[in-house]
Design goal:
Blueprint: H1 3-8, H2 10-15, H3 20-32, H4 34-56, H5 71-82, H6 88-102, H7 104-107, E1 128-133, E2 140-148, E3 151-159, E4 165-173, E5 178-186, E6 194-200, E7 207-214, E8 219-224
Antiparallel strand pairs: 1-2, 2-3, 3-6, 4-5, 4-7, 7-8
Helix pairs in contact: 3-4, 5-6
């Protein structure tokens, strides 16, 4: 597979539609390509919302239900406020393709709405924020949560100089249940913090703690909820 073709596979990899062999080759490519690693991290919120939609949608709702007439405009506005201007066109294309492929019901999960007016809710103050450095692993993480109608919107910033390795953020509820919030590939020899966004169907007050782990289950850092 040529390098250009590998770059083009970033969306398919983020959505989990690559075959096993192709995904394996693309993960090798991620180790050396910081640009694709960043794109995969940015696509995680969209793929996370699709997973939440699949879990929460009643069987009576057709997966290809037609979106509302202004849903795409609202979604694009939300995406635009969250991403740097230089990447707007690429993310707009992703948002449009998700709306066309999945339908309007799915994407209402990705955009906060005011319950009385139906308007998009701007980012408000965080519901909670916590940060910690693990004394044993040296990994630093900061987690910020915001309440949404569908659960919690979660942002995690991580400093981990031991890459490359695949990591994930896990939310652990007060009832002992676990949900994967987001995952990413930590670049090699990276001393700077990287930031990812994800979500959980659990509300902030239902989450006991967050854990950053490797894909192999190795514990890196724990952040207890306030």
């Amino acid at each position: 597979m040529r390098s250009l073709e590998r770059h083009r596979d970033v969306g398919a990899y983020a959505l989990g539609v690559l075959g096993e062999a192709e995904a394996f080759r693309f993960e090798d490519h991620l180790v050396e390509c910081a640009q694709c690693t960043a794109f995969v991290s940015e696509y995680r919120p969209a793929t996370r919302q699709l997973m939440l939609y699949r879990r929460s949608t009643p069987r009576s709702v057709h997966p290809f239900a037609a979106p509302g007439p202004r849903l795409l405009d609202k979604l694009l506005g939300e995406v635009a406020t969250r991403n740097r201007a230089g990447r707007r066109r690429l993310l707009f294309a992703l948002a449009a393709s998700v709306v066309l492929a999945v339908g309007g019901s799915a994407m209402t999960l990705a955009v906060g709405h005011d319950s009385s007016s139906g308007a998009v809710v701007a980012d408000g103050p965080p519901s909670s924020q916590m940060a910690r450095t693990d004394a044993e692993t040296g990994v630093w993480a900061q987690v910020t949560t915001r309440e949404r109608l569908w659960g919690s919107e979660i942002e995690v910033a991580v400093k981990d100089a031991e890459g490359p390795r695949s990591c994930e953020l896990v939310a652990i509820g007060k009832d002992g249940s676990e949900q994967s919030v987001t995952s990413w590939m930590e670049p090699a020899h990276n001393d700077a913090a990287i930031t990812m966004q994800g979500g959980s169907s659990m509300r902030t007050d239902e989450i006991r703690r967050f854990e950053v782990r490797t894909s192999d289950g190795e514990h890196l850092v724990t952040l207890n909820s306030p």
